[in-house]
Specification:
By secondary structure, the protein is of the alpha/beta class. The chain contains nine helices and eight strands. An eight-stranded parallel beta barrel has the order 1-2-3-4-5-6-7-8, surrounded by five helices. Helix 1 links the parallel strand 1 (22-26) and strand 2.
């Protein structure tokens, strides 16, 4: 871990004309040394986080998460729709033909949790190209299914004041069969959906692996972005670990662009979670 990622003088976070960034702990990736989500919420609060996100909170009772949120004052800002049958290879259903009814059921469960937790963002997971299928041959049908499901979801979520997010996941390292794999494809889908509450979830890790060109892509798609997630490349560890990305630059760029939504810390700590947060403490200290 690199000490002093954000020095207390002369760094962009100290510029009062720039927006101070907001970070949330992804408690599906961080604090995994603790067995359940409620303990992880408490640990995140102890480390200075004001918000958390979670992939699939559905194995934890809503009232238990509510209690941890209320006791700590920590917001829950993002959850995912249920993945489907992961043992059978599912990772989302929104773009999978023939699974529309299951997608709608999962959306209702996600919305039940979101409403109870006052969570205003739901990641609508696209899903994978079916095993044995050629991506090019099924792409048109899958995209049509995706667009229709997103239009349905947008209308349902709009009534509850919730934003739906779609996230490109890289197919080079993480998930070779994931359907939505680039920011360009995601932006094209959002345009076809044509609903103002369907936004782009920018995971910097995935974007760097699939396309690079982060500065220009961030500027190009900035108006579509409703949430950002971070990790170093290629190890998917803390932002100040060894790797390809200079997060001090990216954070300063986001500040200068006036980014005001949350940035999710979705990474694998090299040691304990608290030990991996030097970069976070540096930023919070420098931005005071």
């Amino acid at each position: 871990m690199n000490a002093g990622m954000f020095p207390s003088t002369g760094s962009a976070p100290c510029d009062s004309n720039m927006s101070r960034l907001k970070f949330c702990a992804n408690i599906s990736w961080l604090y995994t040394e603790l067995p359940d989500l409620t303990q992880r919420i408490c640990a995140a609060a102890s480390d200075g986080f004001k918000a958390v996100e979670a992939a699939w909170p559905y194995d934890t009772k809503i009232e238990h998460i509510q209690r941890a949120r209320n006791d700590t004052g920590v917001k829950v800002v993002l959850i995912n729709t249920p993945p489907g049958d992961m043992k059978a290879g599912d990772l989302g259903l929104a773009a999978v033909p023939g699974r529309e009814a299951e997608f709608r059921q999962g959306l209702q469960l996600a919305l039940k949790y979101a409403n109870a937790l006052d969570c205003k963002r739901i990641h609508l997971m696209a899903g994978r190209v079916p095993v044995g299928s050629d991506r090019a041959e099924v792409a048109s049908e899958m995209e049509s299914t995706f667009v229709q499901n997103l239009q349905y979801a947008a209308d349902v979520l709009m009534k509850e004041g919730v934003t739906g997010l779609i996230e490109p996941i890289n197919t080079r390292i993480t998930d070779p069969r994931y359907f939505l794999d680039s920011p360009h494809h995601a932006a094209a889908v959002i345009e076809k959906v044509g609903k103002p509450n369907i936004k782009l979830q920018m995971d910097v890790f995935h974007w760097q692996i699939m396309d690079g060109n982060l500065t220009q892509n961030l500027k190009k798609y900035f108006s579509l972005i409703g949430h950002i997630q971070i990790a170093q490349v290629p190890g998917r560890n803390e932002p100040d670990s060894a790797g390809e990305l200079k997060y001090q630059y990216l954070f300063s760029l986001l500040e200068s662009m006036g980014y005001t939504e949350y940035i999710g810390c979705e990474y694998k700590p090299l040691g304990s979670t608290s030990e991996s947060l030097g970069w976070f403490r540096d930023y919070m200290t420098a931005s005071k």
